[in-house]
Here is the input.
Amino acid sequence: MYYQGIYEARGAYGLVNESKHNTVDPAPSEQELAELRRLSQSIHETLLSSTAESLGAARKAARRIVQLRGTVADSPELQALAVEMFALLAFAEERHGNEPDAQQHRLEVRRLVAESTPSSYLLESLSKAAMLFNQAGDSVRALECWHWAEALTASVEVSPSRLGRLHANIGLAYRKLGDYSQSLKHSYRSLDLFKKTGELHYQISALQQIGGVLVNTNRAREALPLVERSLSLASSINEIDQQTMALNLLASVLIELDKPEQALEHARQCCKLCMDHGLNSQLAGAYNNLGGLYKKLKRWRNAQEYYERSLSLYKELGDSYNVAILLLNIGLTARDLGEQDKAQQYIKQSMQKADAIGARLPMFRARFQLFEICKKQGAIAEALHWYEQYHNIRDQVFNEEQSTRVAEMEARYKVEQVRQEAEIYRNLSTQLSNKNKELEDANAEIKRQRDTVQQQAHKIEGANAALRD
Here is the structure.
């Protein structure tokens, strides 16, 4: 049976009844298919709540779809629904801590895609699945779904706008995985497509994504004209959020190019824009960035002023992580100003906040800075205390970083496999599309010849009738 492999995944859910392996279920009514579509959308919207009810609904829908696969009701839409439902299940099971089941469902998504008929339904379901896996933190599976979707475009008609968004998402996924070369490739492709469609909003996003990657790879000079272009476009359509992002990114680019005054000017413009439009979250980040710029220029008082402004806003927003970071930044600035007591006060507050939320970076850095301050003050016993704590956390962080590096290497290997498999699928889809075209042409030729024969037969019949008369 077309969907035989899924029976191996039934586990504790009873997704199928074993007695049905060799039977054909009756075709569903249009009403039932509509209900499955509605249920899929409903589950998609509610699964983030991670309730047992939403998980149960996903299992129920998947069970019914399994029963329908391989029957006379099987269709591209049903195949796409199956992909979507098992992606939903994988997401839900992971949220509920059922990793083995989540992994099995991910594999079924992969199997389903490979066996499904290329269609616009499948393309839509793959996009939804990619977003779900991305939300679940599974960047490799998300990228796999985006690549399958890309491969589908060889045989499914897709608008330039949609294709541009697809490449933009692939570029973003590669950036998260640290593969900047592939990220740039797909981001530039998306930019070219958005230029053709004239969609300025998407052009701005693509320019900023490319600019960010170029900054990540120490290519600030290449990034500069792209980021400036994104700012110009955002200003032309009065897109405030994108203007603030462009201004912040431009400030980062300019400081890398050793143009501090220009960097400061753009950072100040960003702050003013955020204030004028009441964008407190963006303003908190803009103040922090401006403080960082002043710190690079060793203008400690200015840096401290903007760090404190940022801290005040992040406290209002309830952002504990950034509060811990800003407390540490203020403490380090006080240290650079020679205000050791104030430095210790803020650094200890940062450490306490970081400990409370388990934020490794400020936990680690705060203890090291306290060790350094106490050592310079000659408080050897206290310095030793902080060094021991720093050393213990450093070992934990080092082990986590090593694990992360290994995981990133494994992810890149898996992604390369995915890319190669998707390319094979693209080629097969192209071949299938060509074969279908040949079949359509052959059928058209047969119809043309049949019509010609029928016309000739009518003429002969007419001639015979005339002779009989």
